[in-house]
Specification:
two-stranded antiparallel sheet, alpha+beta
């Protein structure tokens, strides 16, 4: 079982730039709303990531699970690299799993960690957790995701109050192929 991920290093770049957002909402000729648009970009990305359970900006996450069998399907995707996998051995000492034991596989929407040929998972202390630290997220989000982020932030820019959401929108249609689980 996987437990909720913690972001330890936030994204340094968003999938949509301020220039793209300003062009989309026709605010290119002034800078008064730049801070607000920056907030909307981050909020839209965060919403899209939660909606799809996929990271669309590169960030470092720490996730814990109960056993090595959980590595067959990681709750984060895409995983670009694994920083470390730590566990508590049967003697109660924290150990770091050697990178020579496993390999990371990712096809964009799904990521997993598999044993390399001839390797085996180590025994862990009962009721302890395995901690995976990884860099996850797209280096460049797919065009449909960028479009959905622009739609979401445009709605927030134009309508600065709460309104009822439609049952199925262009936002949903653009992201339906990227939604996991």
């Amino acid at each position: 079982m996987w437990y909720p991920a913690q972001v330890t290093v936030a994204p340094t770049a968003e999938p949509v730039t301020l220039v793209e957002a300003k062009r989309h909402v026709h605010a290119e000729d002034f800078t008064d709303d730049d801070a607000h648009l920056g907030l909307l970009i981050s909020s839209a990305r965060d919403h899209v990531e939660k909606y799809c359970t996929t990271r669309f900006a590169t960030q470092t996450v720490v996730i814990k699970c109960d056993c090595f069998g959980d590595m067959v399907r990681l709750p984060e995707a895409p995983v670009q690299s694994v920083t470390s996998i730590t566990y508590v051995d049967t003697d109660g000492a924290t150990q770091t799993l050697a990178a020579s034991v496993y390999e990371t596989r990712s096809d964009g929407l799904e990521s997993s960690i598999k044993l390399k040929y001839g390797q085996s998972w180590p025994a862990i202390q009962q009721n302890s957790r395995i901690t995976l630290t990884a860099v996850a997220g797209y280096s460049d989000a797919p065009p449909a995701v960028k479009h959905a982020i622009l739609l979401f932030l445009a709605g927030g820019y134009e309508m600065r109050e709460n309104s009822a959401a439609a049952s199925w929108t262009a936002f949903d249609c653009l992201l339906s192929n990227f939604r996991r689980g």
